[in-house]
């Protein structure tokens, strides 16, 4: 009997080890692609890398040219604890300058570091997993053109059980899914292009979709608004049923993303300021695509 | 009267009515109403900048005057003790960093003064002087207003 218990415990431990193991792509999964840094800059702004990774200036969010200095160091308070954003500049030791294309793709799309550790999903790889691999490779080529910034951020300070990094492997098996969230008619090319930006690089769902107690996004409430992770108020519902956005035309959405002004000429606010400033750097076609997608998705009250 | 002038007239009337209604009100309510008026005036110019409404130099000047009056008064409506209450969207930074807040207001006021001095007759003349006025809205809201849906 005792032997059976021991055997079961060993089996359970093995199963837990297997379930929490990192799952990565191999070199064979990478397409034959000539990475284009100019195309990567578009992805850089769409993904808003600088909003978290740019080194804060005098305690404030980096602005203008300082957004290109990706030394990390921003501290993010969350219900799970304190996250410290790492250096992703081209610095060889402190940043990601020495990373291979495959290491970068696995970080971005599988949440796995070059040393095999899981990243916390505060780094929104669950969204980036939906990007085209070519876009990810272009992004790496662009990041390689940005300055090397020395310095490393400290470790995260998380409460139990979130401090058990290995456990993220099990979480990913449930919540990491590269498939699109909203099924679209492939003929609707504009909305499909918008989907890639909203569900993938833009990672809009990370704030606009509510989460369950494990931090997994509730797909049946996709973009239907959520409590503000930074405290006060709510992140608005941006489905066609959203209280505010339902009164906006697709062109109003485009103009808002470009200029930062609502149809009433009120200004963009809160954490959306940084997002809008980034999206203003995309092309008019990209913003039109985002608006088309938001007008197409299911309306959720 | 051209149709583009109607909003300006309606606006003037509503501002007048508002100014009576808020007499003796709390600073929270007073500053809210003042900004509502500014928002209405911004909408007039904004529609022209977006190309949705034909440019109307007189209506632009009227909106700029609303901004000018409001910017002179606005900074006095944040006394101690009005940090919260009545659903105010004022950020704690207004009291923690009054110099910064005053500087942001001054940026707006200066941009408004420059636009009034330029008295732009056409949309092309207007864009370079009106842009900074709207940027000032954003810069101040970014740091000194709390978002609440």
Could you walk me through the main structural features you see in this protein, from its secondary elements to its overall organization?
The complex is a heterodimer of chains A (301) and B (149). In chain A, 38% of the residues lie in helices and 5% in strands. A three-stranded antiparallel beta sheet of chain A has the order 1-2-3, with no helix packed on it. In chain A, helix 2 packs across helix 6 and helix 8 crosses helix 12. The longest helix of chain A is centred in the N-terminal third of the chain and has 18 residues. The model of chain A has no long low-confidence stretch (mean pLDDT 95). With 149 residues, chain B is an all-alpha fold. Chain B is built from six helices and no strands. In chain B, helix 2 runs antiparallel to helix 6, helix 3 runs antiparallel to helix 5 and helix 5 packs antiparallel against helix 6. The relative contact order of chain B is 0.14.
Task: Note the topology.
The complex is a heterodimer of chains A (301) and B (149).
Chain A: H1 2-19, H2 37-47, H3 49-53, E1 75-78, E2 81-84, H4 101-110, H5 125-128, H6 133-143, E3 157-158, H7 168-175, H8 189-201, H9 205-208, E4 226-227, E5 234-235, H10 250-259, H11 272-279, H12 284-296
Antiparallel strand pairs in A: 1-2, 2-3, 4-5
Helix pairs in contact in A: 2-6, 4-6, 8-12, 10-12
Chain B: H1 5-21, H2 27-49, H3 57-74, H4 93-96, H5 98-118, H6 123-144
Helix pairs in contact in B: 1-2, 2-3, 2-6, 3-5, 5-6
């Amino acid at each position: 009997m005792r032997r059976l218990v021991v055997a079961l415990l060993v089996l359970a431990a093995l199963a837990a080890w297997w379930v929490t193991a990192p799952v990565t792509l191999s070199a064979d999964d990478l397409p034959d692609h000539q990475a284009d840094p100019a195309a990567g800059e578009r992805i850089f702004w769409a993904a808003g890398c600088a909003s978290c990774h740019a080194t804060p200036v005098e305690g404030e969010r980096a602005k203008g040219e300082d957004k290109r200095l990706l030394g990390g160091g921003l501290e993010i308070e969350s219900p799970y604890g304190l996250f410290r954003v790492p250096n992703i500049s081209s610095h060889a030791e402190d940043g990601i300058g020495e990373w291979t294309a495959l290491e970068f793709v696995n970080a971005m799309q599988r949440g796995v570091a070059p040393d095999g550790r899981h990243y916390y999903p505060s780094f929104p790889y669950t969204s980036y997993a939906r990007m085209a691999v070519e876009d990810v490779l272009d992004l790496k080529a662009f990041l390689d053109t940005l300055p090397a910034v020395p310095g490393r951020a400290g470790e995260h300070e998380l409460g139990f059980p979130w401090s058990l990094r290995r456990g993220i492997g099990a979480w990913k098996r449930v919540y990491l899914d590269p498939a699109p969230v909203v099924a679209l008619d492939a003929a609707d090319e504009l909305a499909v292009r918008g989907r890639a930006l909203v569900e993938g690089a833009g990672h809009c769902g990370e704030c606009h979709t509510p989460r369950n107690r494990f931090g997994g996004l509730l797909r049946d409430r996709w973009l239907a608004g959520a409590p503000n992770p930074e405290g006060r108020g709510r992140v608005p519902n941006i489905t066609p049923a959203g209280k505010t956005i339902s009164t906006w035309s697709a062109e109003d959405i485009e103009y808002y993303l470009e200029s930062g002004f609502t149809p009433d000429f009120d200004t963009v606010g809160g954490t959306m300021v940084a997002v809008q400033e980034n999206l203003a750097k995309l092309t008019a076609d990209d913003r039109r695509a985002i608006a088309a997608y938001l007008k197409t998705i299911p309306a959720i009250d | 009267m051209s149709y583009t002038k109607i909003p300006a007239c309606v606006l003037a009337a509503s501002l007048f009515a508002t100014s009576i209604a808020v007499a003796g009100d709390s600073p929270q309510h007073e500053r809210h109403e003042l900004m509502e008026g500014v928002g209405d005036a911004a909408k007039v110019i904004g529609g022209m900048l977006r190309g949705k409404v034909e440019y109307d130099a007189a209506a632009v000047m009227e909106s700029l005057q609303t901004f000018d009056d409001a910017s002179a008064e606005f900074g006095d409506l944040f006394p101690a003790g009005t940090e919260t209450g009545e659903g105010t969207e004022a950020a704690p930074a207004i009291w923690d960093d009054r110099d910064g807040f005053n500087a942001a207001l001054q940026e707006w006021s200066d941009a408004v003064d420059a636009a009034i001095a330029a008295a732009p007759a056409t949309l092309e003349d207007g864009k370079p002087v009106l842009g900074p006025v709207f940027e000032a809205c954003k810069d101040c809201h970014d740091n000194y207003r709390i978002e609440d849906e």
